[in-house]
Amino acid sequence: MEPEAAAERKVYAVSAFNRRLAGYVGRVRDVWVEGEVAELRRNPAWATVFLTLKDARTGACLPATMQRGRFDRIEPTLTEGERVQANGGLQLYEARGELSFRVAAIERVGAGDHAARLAELKRTLAAEGLFSPERKRPLPRFPRAVGLLTGADAAARGDVIAAITTRYPAVRLVVAETRVQGPFAVGAITSTLARLAACDGVDVVILARGGGSFEDLLPFSDERVVRAVAACRVPVVSAVGHEQDEPLCDLAADVRAPTPTAAARLVVPDLDELRSGLARALQRLEAGTRRTLERDRGRLARSRERLTAAPGLLLERRRAALDRASVRLQALSPRATLARGYAIVRAGDAVLRDAAGVAEGARIEVELARGALGARVEDVRP
């Protein structure tokens, strides 16, 4: 190439070119784009939520971003696979030359009105206390019968039945198939739930339905179904949709299970675990009985030794007490006084204590430590 031609070129540095391109791109604003949400990435530490808007028909994709604060205000939370209409404008990340759609507002297509009404219903029912943890009832440990409300030919039905019969074959299953989607589903669900709860022996009811679209699961967020679940006379386990779904009946139920199989694990115990626990309890009982018998045997042996030794010890204590009493009696006996050289003088039958009590010539008896004397008074000295 000739030097003169090269000198006439308009050459941009990459940063300058990207900056100029960003100015052109930034003119595209207040545009509505429709597509499915894909590759949704969010983190509480990030100020921005990243997602991709995808054309389900052609597969064309448009990278997009949205402020996390705005995204978090969307109710219910936006998930991958939902069809939306997003309003915003184009922007270019100059450092890397990457184009993205900056979303300012986003609306669900088809489900937007439903979502808004559900959010309002959720707030109303929560204010009434239907979702309060205090009203949740514990599940029975050993239910006599388990009611299962499910759709016809539903995979969820087979999962629940297989799990329950495997874990606890002794329980009776009462299965009620009914409509779980469509315009007649709400009435069918509420009436079937009431019949199941009224069945003799049914102590808990499982609501089971496999995954589906937002519209498919709407009957389980209907106010009539939610109130029927809350008013059910027996505890209710909700296993509706996938784990990320949250129909309002989940909030009103006594327990929410992420899957139908998990619901089966919640309502019945595992027979093998019960047998293992029983065996362990039997071992502990046998060991405790042996320890108790050993303690009682030792206690009886010690008691026998004490009882054998007790009569001899009692006799010794009685002998010692008698000896002490004898010593005290001897010390207090008049004969002990006589042994020290004193005498007892009697005039008749009375002990003579005063010389005035006897006259001269009277006969008196003098008792000594050994023997006695008869005497007659010759002289009285007052």
Can you characterise this structure?
Helix content is 41%, strand content 24%. The chain is an alpha/beta fold and 382 residues long. It has four domains: 99 residues, Beta Barrel (OB fold (Dihydrolipoamide Acetyltransferase, E2P)); 154 residues, Hypothetical protein af1403, domain 2 (Rossmann fold); 60 residues; 41 residues, no CATH class. A five-stranded mixed beta barrel has the order 1-2-3-5-4.
Element order: H for helix, E for strand: HHEEEHEEHEHEHEHEHEHHHEEEE
The assigned CATH architecture of the largest domain is 3-Layer(aba) Sandwich
Number of strands: 14
Which strand-content bin applies to the residues? 15-25%
Mean pLDDT, to the nearest integer, reads 86
CATH superfamily label of the largest domain? Hypothetical protein af1403, domain 2
Q: How would the blueprint of this fold be written?
A:
Blueprint: H1 3-7, H2 14-25, E1 31-41, E2 48-54, E3 61-67, H3 68-72, E4 83-93, E5 98-108, H4 112-128, E6 145-150, H5 155-167, E7 172-177, H6 185-198, E8 202-209, H7 223-231, E9 236-240, H8 248-252, E10 255-256, H9 260-267, H10 271-332, H11 334-339, E11 344-347, E12 350-351, E13 363-367, E14 372-376
Helix pairs in contact: 5-9, 6-7
Key terms for this structure?
382 residues; alpha/beta; OB fold (Dihydrolipoamide Acetyltransferase, E2P); Rossmann fold; 4 domains; 5-stranded mixed beta barrel; 5-stranded parallel β-sheet; 11 helices
A few lines on this structure:
With 382 residues, the protein is α/β, with parallel strands linked by helices. It has helices at residues 3-7, 14-25, 68-72, 112-128, 155-167, 185-198, 223-231, 248-252, 260-267, 271-332, 334-339; strands spanning 31-41, 48-54, 61-67, 83-93, 98-108, 145-150, 172-177, 202-209, 236-240, 255-256, 344-347, 350-351, 363-367, 372-376. The protein is built from eleven helices and 14 strands.
